[in-house]
């Protein structure tokens, strides 16, 4: 937005990052909670070693996603009133990307784990590959193409301002 200070822009970008993370955090929490209960079910004992490693990957990536999505809020508490909002916004953007990647791994491996249990390994691998490709495209691929074409959608929060700085949460650096 024009006529907003760097601090106002950082505040707005941080709020936008947190609002976006709220959507993902709920999904991560549900998936993580489910994964924490799986080993205590009776069928888990008959899982082979490959399925146990697949489960390990799903559980670990859900934990990493949870940590990444919670990190901005925790760091905000530690850095409160320290004048480091722009640093926090840049760092939070990276945590959001890392959290999304970890969530993609967890969702893919969890789905693969269940499909392998219900059907067969080939179907599990194909389904997991398709899910991973779909998540990569919808979460990152389309956005990466949009960033490259540079056309923009008009007066949006990530358009360059009058001084050539990007207001995007991941690009609060000075270019000057």
Automatic annotation (TrEMBL):
The chain crosses the membrane at residues 21-41, 53-72, 93-115, 121-140. The keyword 4Fe-4S does not apply. The keyword Transcription does not apply. Keywords: Membrane, Transmembrane, Transmembrane helix. Residues 162-176 have a biased composition (Basic and acidic residues). It comes from the Bacteria. Residues 148-176 are annotated as: Disordered. This is Uncharacterized protein. It comes from Nonomuraea fuscirosea.
């Amino acid at each position: 937005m024009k006529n907003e200070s760097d601090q106002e822009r950082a505040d707005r970008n941080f709020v936008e990052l947190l609002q976006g993370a709220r959507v993902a955090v709920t999904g991560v929490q549900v998936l993580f909670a489910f994964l924490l209960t799986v080993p205590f079910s009776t069928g888990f004992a008959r899982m082979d070693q490959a399925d146990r490693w697949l489960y390990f990957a799903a559980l670990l990536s859900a934990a990493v996603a949870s940590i990444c999505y919670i990190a901005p809020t925790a760091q905000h508490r530690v850095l409160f009133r320290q004048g480091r909002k722009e640093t926090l916004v840049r760092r939070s953007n990276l945590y959001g990307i890392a959290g999304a990647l970890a969530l993609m791994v967890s969702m893919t491996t969890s789905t693969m784990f269940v499909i392998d249990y219900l059907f067969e390994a080939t179907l599990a691998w194909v389904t997991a590959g398709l899910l991973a490709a779909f998540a990569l495209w919808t979460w990152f691929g389309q956005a990466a193409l949009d960033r490259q074409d540079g056309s923009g959608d008009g007066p949006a929060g990530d358009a360059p301002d009058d001084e050539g700085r990007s207001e995007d949460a991941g690009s609060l650096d000075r270019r000057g």
